[in-house]
Amino acid sequence: EVQLVESGGDLVQPGGSLRLSCAVSGFSVNYRWMTWVRQAPGRELECLSVIDGGGTTYYTDSVKGRFTISRDSSKNTVFLQMNSLRPDDTAVYYCARGENGMDVWGQGTTVTVSS
Amino acid sequence: DIVMTQTPVSSPVTLGQSASISCRSSQSLVHSSGNTHLSWLQQRPGQPPRLLIYRVSNRFSGVPDRFSGSGAGTDFTLRISKVEAEDVGVYYCMQATQFPWTFGQGTKVEIK
Predict the structure, then answer these.
(1) Which residues 16-45 of B have a C-beta within 8 angstroms of A?
(2) Max CA-CA distance within chain B?
(3) Could you read off the pLDDT of B77-106 as tens digits, one per residue?
(4) Under a CB-based contact definition with an 8 Å cutoff, are residues B108 and B8 in contact?
């Protein structure tokens, strides 16, 4: 069964860091397009970052220079390293497979940035 | 960035009737490959999004055939025929033709 399970969300102070993980089962993350998407409370979805099959990474402007997407094929896991967090980064963060649009989604992990 | 604009914002529907949602992109979604990377997703209350339609009109695995997508270029439509109670939620169009991939603001489908 194809499954994505996010973890790592937490309450963090402004300026802090978090690393989100997306553990994948049912397919290999190698050579696959994977994405991170967030949804702030009551807001629409925002695609933050994509890693393509060849390992090229893309970031939306609001997180460029602060967030880093990566994958570890030995753990079959995708990561999102988030630095210099701001209150407006507060959201539910989803991992999704970026094929046919976004065809498989995790349940999400909540990040709250507040002092 | 490509801006995706959905109408209406809210769509009250009678059970068994049809609903249509429009999505317009600020530029053509035809990729250099010739494909048009326009998808529709459903988000039920308290749930993650779920893919319904990809590349304009292809139903994803397990999606009922009462969901259909159409359109080309910059104008797209999701149609839900014979709405059921389980169809309540927010529907998003999404483009993956050009990064950053962007979503519409969502259309809330509710039962009258």
Answers:
(1) 37, 39, 41
(2) 43
(3) 999 999 999 999 999 999 999 999 999 999
(4) no
